[in-house]
Every structure is written in structure tokens, then in C-alpha cells.
């Protein structure tokens, strides 16, 4: 048995060289020990999108996100359809007092409010609304497609 300590942040060359192999061990562990399904979302299926109507990814996914929000609110929280429209979605999860800021010393995505979108088979199945700040990441809200509740997306998002 050989054990190595490999720097993950910032990623060392050893980390990069063994990433796929390590990921496959992790995925098998999750499936065998925690009974995760093989189609649980992967890192390649998660997009971090700035909450801005100027951002093309945000604009192009807005309707799908708003519809998913309504489906979640009605199924999980028993909200009436009138409480889950695009205006309510925008007020609750898109309007933010934070201003986007990109500093050379900050993360590549910058600081501000983001929608962390979880995609599966070409559609959004969950959205984590987060604020990225200089000293922390704040989870504001998470909503998901109730049809995928078996994936435990809230737990997955929190761990991620």
C-alpha cells in the first residue's frame, strides 16, 4: 500500500494527473456504500451562472428555472400557482442587493449572486441559489424537480 498526499487546492500536477481515477473510485464508493444511482449529477453537469439578465446563460435558462421553481414550490411547499409566477421567482431568487465584482485576487467567477444549475439530459433538475463573498459562500435557497428527489440533490448540493 502506498499513500500519497496530493495538493488539491491549488491543484498540483499529481492531482490533475490522477483526478479521473480518483473520481471513479469516489463514484463507485458512493454507489456501493451510499446507494447513489449511477446517473447522479456529476461536476460536468453543474453550471455556475451569474444572476444577471445581461448574462446569456442566465437569460437562456430563465424560463426553465422559473418553471422548475414553480413545480418545486407547489409540490414541496404546497404553494398556489399564483404564488409561483415569474415575478415572484424574480423577486425571491433573482433580485439581489449584491453587486457583481471581479477582483484580480478573487475567484475566477467573481463575487456576487449565482444560480448553481444542475443539468441532466439537457434539462435543469435543480438550482442552488448562492452568494459568493470574499470570506464565504452563502447558500440562499435550493429548489429541485420533485421527480428527482431520489437523488438527494439538497444533500449533494450542500456537500458540493
TrEMBL record:
Superkingdom per UniProt: Eukaryota
GO terms, molecular function: arginyl-tRNA--protein transferase activity
Signal peptide: none
Domain N-end rule aminoacyl transferase C-terminal: 65-160
GO CC aspect terms: cytoplasm
The entry's keywords: Transferase
Name the record gives this protein: ATE1 transferase
Organism: Nothoprocta pentlandii
Higher taxonomy: Eukaryota, Metazoa, Chordata, Craniata, Vertebrata
Gene: Ate1
Amino acid at each position: 500500500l502506498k499513500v500519497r498526499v496530493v495538493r488539491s487546492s491549488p491543484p498540483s500536477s499529481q492531482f490533475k494527473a490522477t483526478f479521473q481515477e480518483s473520481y471513479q473510485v469516489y463514484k463507485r464508493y458512493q454507489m456501493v456504500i451510499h446507494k447513489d444511482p449511477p446517473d447522479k449529477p456529476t461536476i460536468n453537469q453543474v453550471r455556475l451562472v451569474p444572476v444577471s439578465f445581461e448574462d446569456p446563460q442566465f437569460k437562456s435558462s430563465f424560463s426553465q428555472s422559473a418553471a422548475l421553481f414553480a413545480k418545486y414550490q407547489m409540490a414541496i411547499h404546497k404553494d398556489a400557482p399564483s404564488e409561483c409566477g415569474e415575478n415572484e421567482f424574480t423577486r425571491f431568487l433573482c433580485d439581489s442587493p449584491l453587486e457583481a465584482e471581479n477582483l484580480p485576487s478573487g475567484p475566477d467567477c467573481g463575487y456576487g449572486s449565482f444560480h448553481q444549475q444542475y443539468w441532466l439530459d439537457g434539462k435543469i433538475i435543480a438550482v442552488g441559489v448562492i452568494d459568493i463573498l470574499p470570506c464565504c459562500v452563502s447558500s440562499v435557497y435550493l429548489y429541485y424537480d420533485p421527480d428527482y428527489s431520489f437523488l438527494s440533490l439538497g444533500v449533494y448540493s450542500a456537500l458540493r
